Amino acid sequence: MKIQPGVGYTFDSSSKGFTLDTSEQFPDNSQPYRHPFQIINARINAGGNVIYQVQSGIINNIVPLLDDYISSTTVLLDRVTAGVAAPPTAELVSGSYDVTTKTSYIALKSGPDATTNDFPSSDVTSARYPVVIGGNDPAVADTDTAGYIFLGTITVDNVTTPTTFTVSQNVTGSLWADRLKLGTTTAVYYYARI
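-> structure tokens emitted (194 positions)
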């Protein structure tokens, strides 16, 4: 009897019989899967503030910015330095939290191009270009120049000197967004995960 190797197993054959090895042939030693716009690497820094990163994602094929507290500038989520991924890190200070719920709301803010009205703006120098922000308002209102979608939240035990925190995620993928503006009514924004 001849045994052929197949998917998911190997075998060893000798005059004393044969054995099947069904263990994982190519074990996966990689990092756990991270989805676009996942809040990652959250921790408390030496200054006593919560810092975090956001996994790179896109909105309408545009990579958003994140306010990098180290360089004090906004940086693309997919930043690469010297050929190595160097994602920006944001910092939440005491004013970044709702004092009642002790929660900071991590949102993706984007607006239409001021000249062409294309949504979202693809001009990285514009204030309307997509950017991930942390803030203390759970009900920030959309305007004609900015729409918001909450990616997740970070809740702390103390807003001035946090020692513990929890991260909750709302968005689990890249997004496609649409902006609808009719007459004098405030623009309405629609989002779909892609």
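The chain has a mean pLDDT of 91.
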